Amino acid sequence: MRLRGTILFLILIYIATITGNAQQLRMTSYTVNDGLLSNSIRKIFQDSSGNIWISTVDGLSKYDGYRFTNYTRANGLPHSLVNDMLEIAGTLVFACNDGSIAWMRHDRIVKVTTPGAVINQFCKVKSGKVLVATDVKGIQEFKDGQLHEARQPFPKSNYYSLAEINNNLLLAGSDSCVELLTNEYKLVKRFGGQATYYGGNNVMKDSRGRLWASHLPDPVQLSSDSGIYPPLNIPELKDASVEQVFEDKAGNIWFAGIYGLVQLSPEGQVRTIKKKNGLLSDAVSCVFQDREDNLWIGTSLGLCKMPATTVITTFDEADGLAYPTINAIFTDKENKLIAVTIKGWQSFDEKSGRFSPLLNPNSLFYVIHRQLAFYPALYTDAGQPVLKNTKAGRDLEKFFRQQRSRAHISRMAGDQRCYFISIGWKFYIYDGNKVFEDTSLLFSRRSNYTITGLTMDRNGSLWVGTWEEGLFRLEFSIDKGQFRFTKKTVVLPAIAIRSLMMDRQGNIWAGTRYNGVYRLSQAPGGHYKTDKWNTDKGLASNFVHELYQDEKNNIWLVYQDGVDKLVNKNDTFRVFNFSRVNNFFGNINHILPAGNGSLWLGTFNGLVRIKDGEMENKPPWEVDITSIIVGDSSYIPESMPALLSHKSNSLRIDFSAPTYLNENQVLYSYRLLGSGDTAWSHP
Questions:
Q1: Contact by Cβ (8 Å): 67, 35
Q2: Secondary structure of residue 302 in the 3-state scheme
Q3: How confident is the model at residue 374 (pLDDT cuts 50, 70, 90)?
């Protein structure tokens, strides 16, 4: 196999380029420090059992989600460079750069053959044949471990890659050109010239029928009728020595080159992912998507994994944020995202991924508490700030200008009749004309209790969460301009409430400091049915300080360092540990919906956007038994005897079900039928 230089592609759609910012993508990296054989990656492959195979410059690594197992000449691999990998009926086939082929079963190299040519790529076609691109031997068929040379006009050509177009046409990439061939290998069209060396062309047909090649000399799109389209105007693809063009399951086209990984979306948007975005290196050699939709990215300095289904992106000071800790986020009346930090307010442009300069507080449309350094907006329990240009806004802003306390505003709730505001342990009411402090409520014998949550229910009652005294429901009336509370009910006594919310169904949710989360559903007779979720039922923590209901009526629980998701199905909920599965942990202050399954999080380390891939709906993979050890004897499943001697009192079973969503958090449970204890083990 010859070394390669560029890639070629081209496309007739509008292209919008997003570059220049330093948004951080959620990635996992693997290097020699984690057990990888070498940091210089050449190719990635996944077998039918789910194991990830990585071809490096020093040999082959297998990753099963738990450990790396390495293969070199020392343990049977005939050559350190593996060009391509194939699986045939449970046997793995590795084509090496010296022309040899290593055959592996059950992680053991069982034989090495030399079919007579250096294979650069295996290509399975719809007819069931396996074609191969070779050095100096043209295109051949790989059958029964042997190469079968077909009649072709250029039998001594070097081909790097092949792509089937249809039953009649084949695209072949060489180191100087790309050729369109019939299924009998007759030349139909040549792109590029035979006299120019570009390096090995990687070719591909995408799901929309477009043809791509990696360098002529830059990436281009090809047409069997009109030839080569004009090159894309993407700086990162100019002279980028693109090694691979790849399409993922969502229809994104990816280009792996020396200036980073370039993504072209189906809508024509371009995104460049580089070292500053989380890659180990800007020099990208290959990209691969596994059966769980993770993208694996090979670089010159190691292997990276990026979830393609659930995408987590962080925007911070490198993107213009004035201060890393975001205390609150909301959308303004023009639907722009506003981030509030100790430095002030900034709007965020989703298209460019950049924050605006600091906004002038006097120009804002919202009522704010000016005694606090970070100027939080005054929110209702519906999550909307109060506008200045309303009567309520003018009255409330006048009230806050008179305040000297820098105490925290817990919450505000209200409807057309009135607003309720808590500042520290003081409780205020706005009745439509004036703001006054209420001292009639006694939630505690202590004078300095703190209100932690306020919300109004559908019956017009006010729910009050307190720091330690529990959850209360208050009924009130306004008669001839006179406000008074008429009834106080203790719903959850002596529970430390930290968050409060009413969902779209009218249920009240209360997040607590020590007891997880409660749901209160109205029952006949004015009573409430209580449901509870805590760590005993699967939550990652019992400290729930924020609550949010998404567009599918799932409930998101925010902890000090992550999030869980209560997945809704027919008004019943199951726990999904979102942070644990997606490896997302961080100090979160605020959560806001973004629509289309997305969330915005205000955190201690910037603004985080989550595109939820609903990983909770993916079924678990089947478990494979990899080996069985009885005493001093080792067996593979096929060779395991049906009966064991009563003297064999030591049995070890090795098994795996490779998953890579967040492999460090995978738990297993087992049981042994026919034994004295047939219960499932604790995970």
A1: yes
A2: strand
A3: low
